[in-house]
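Session log. Operator J.P. requested a structure for one protein chain; no other inputs attached. Running the standard single-chain path with token output.
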Amino acid sequence: MTGDERQSRARGLSAWTTRRWLRVGVAASLVILALLGAAGAWVLGRTESISEDIVDVRSPALTIAIRLEAAVLNQETGIRGYGLTGTPEFITPYREGITEQEANLAQLTKLLKDDPVGLEDLKAVQDAVTKWQERVARPIAAAPPGLPSPLAGERAAEGKAAFDDVRGALSGQQERLRAERVQARDDLTATMTLRNWVFSAIAVLIVVLTALIFEGLRRGINRPLERLGVDARAISGGDFGHPITLTGPADLRRLSGEIDFMRRRLVRELAFSEETRLRLDAQAADLQRSNAELEQFAYVASHDLQEPLRKVSSFTQLLQRRYGGQLDSRADQYIDFAVDGANRMQILINDLLDFSRVGRLHNAHQSIDLDKVLEGTLSALSVGIEEAGATITHDPLPTLVADPTQLGMLWQNLLGNAVKFRRPGEAPKIHVTAAREGELWRFTVTDNGIGIAPEYVDKIFVIFQRLHTKDAYAGSGIGLAMCKKIVEFHGGTIAVDPAYRDGARFTFTLAPQPPESSDSSPMPEATRSDAEPAG
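Structure written below.
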């Protein structure tokens, strides 16, 4: 083979993929194992065939041939004694020998049906016995008992010669059967030796094939994968400039090349992302400052609206008391509108102040018993609960590290809504549950009220979103938005169970410990007292 041919063959093998190497290796192993299995099966079949021939044919045939000889000898002894004495007792062994002879001949014929030479020997024995019986045994057996048979003396020489032929035929048959049995045993020994060699060779070849397969896997798959793993770990450790070595079959080299391409692309992306991160950090700092300023503005604006609103509310109430009933009905209606608008604006500003305080003023985390917090909330809502005839039950609640004021506001909004949005003519039934769910606690507040349509389950948590008019149900539309902000501030989530149809079911989670967050600086708190109009 020339150098060019060797290089061409090497390039051809290097283009083989792992799947192709495995297919070729498995196919070659299966062919070798199939040939070895066929050889082993043939040897086992041959051993079994010889063993069956010895056990089922050769040994039984020799035994029956010996019995046949004994049966013929019994006939000769009995007929000789009967011929010399005429005693009837001597005829019995003769007749029993005939019966045994016929049975033995039938068995030998069956055993030697596939052995033409054996059948010829059996026929020779049968012919010799038949000749002796016809010329000597039967005529003597036919003589009357009591007196010696004249034929016994007349045919003594002929009978001796005929029976010698019988002995010779029987001896020849037995010698042949013995020789065949010895030959079969020799064949069995040789076959068993061959079987041992074949199975030893199979075991050796299996060990060799296993070693070759493991070595091939180690060199062709394990070693390239280990090399790829070393390179990948170096890259994952932060050495993004470390190149990937291309080794192994074609598909593994292609995989290594793709990983190296990803590495190079990652280097480019990291450079770009680092630049982007720096810009985002600057933008985040600006956004945080802007949000802080915006929250400060909202808080101060809500606080500063209190004083002019108190004046408007005070003087409209004073106007209502001083001149109520003195003007026409339209003027009284206008005054009522002004008073109602001022009151609702006061409530809205107070709710906005509470909403802005979440996570700012109320940020005193401590270990609290939620059972006691819930009892305090029920006490605060006792008037509304008694007026509605509501029944509120709850499971044992856990102890968490949280802000007690915020959780009190959470219970007050959820339970107050459950009492407020009740079905006409039906007393509210509210149940609170708590269960551990992984690292969080999951709470549910279930009522039998008017419920929430599935299309509004997300909308209700948006600030100022109302599903009913103020004439139907009072409120500012901030309560559930505040609940959402409180729950998220404590590391949880809140949602409505859309599968519950017999009312409304709110589910929310709380963490046992408060999440890591930066403390906000508290702002000056505005007064929530309304100025009373002067008399």
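Operator note: Residues 53 and 339 are 122 Å apart (CA to CA).
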